[in-house]
Amino acid sequence: xxxxxxxxxxxxxxxxxxxxxxxxxxxxxxxxxxxxxxxxxxxxxxxxxxxxxxxxxxxxxxxxxxxxxxxxxxxxxxxxxxxxxxxxxxxxxxxxxxxxxxxxxxxxxxxxxxxxxxxxxxxxxxxxxxxxxxxxxxxxxxxxxxxxxxxxxxxxxxxxxxxxxxxxxxxxxxxxxxxxxxxxxxxxxxxxxxxxxxxxxxxxxxxxxxxxxxxxxxxxxxxxxxxxxxxxxxxxxxxxxxxxxxxxxxxxxxxxxxxxxxxxxxxxxxxxxxxxxxxxxxxxxxxxxxxxxxx
Length: 295
Known about the structure:
Blueprint: H1 2-9, E1 12-17, H2 25-36, E2 41-46, H3 54-62, E3 73-77, E4 95-100, E5 103-108, H4 112-117, E6 124-128, H5 141-154, H6 159-162, E7 163-165, E8 178-179, E9 183-191, E10 197-202, H7 203-207, E11 215-218, E12 225-226, E13 241-245, E14 250-255, H8 266-270, E15 277-282
Parallel strand pairs: 1-2, 1-3, 3-5
Antiparallel strand pairs: 4-5, 4-6, 6-7, 8-9, 9-10, 9-15, 10-14, 11-12, 11-15, 13-14
């Protein structure tokens, strides 16, 4: 029996929402979890996803999945209201449980699962039962549908006891870098608290051009460029620009200790926003005599 108790204690419930913290919604969710499962361990990933922005929600989640143990339960409350089309049921977006990398993700099947998976496949999928017969839950589906499912799983129930097997999921297009012969073009997908520009360019994308190949990273303003990858922020003086691959293996453009006194973060210095292009031009040895010839 002790073994089962310890196993339950390993099940944490995380929250990723677009609800913000100004209103009472997050407190209501947490209170509902604790009312059903007093011993629950609740972890906030973020409540500051831009409203209805499932791409940003998937970015936050993808960056922490590897840090959580098996059987962790993730509640995704972003654009969470189910969509029911009685004339064309194939268009329905209903509360769903996905098992992926040994963890459970609970959210409405609005495309968020495809963004999390990218080219991978889920281990299993289930659709929550008895949703359409409970219209009173529609105004707050996270509390009424997701929380009971999460607490049931954390209490040791199998998904098969609370949901029905599901075959497919809604697919959304994943924005990927564009690769040509000597150019890699990506975009800014997130600007963090420090003003660092996090792109969708993976280290594997960069390395396909070969180790030691000269390159230039440039932005909207051509007078700014970077031609070196750093391992840490302090490789350059405070206030200087740098590029590195962050903990998630994504290319990041930063200003070391980018404060207003040091010119601000990379976003303000370069005038960059989410969606703006980051372009990398590679120059195989012998194809350019000097750096200026790359522009």
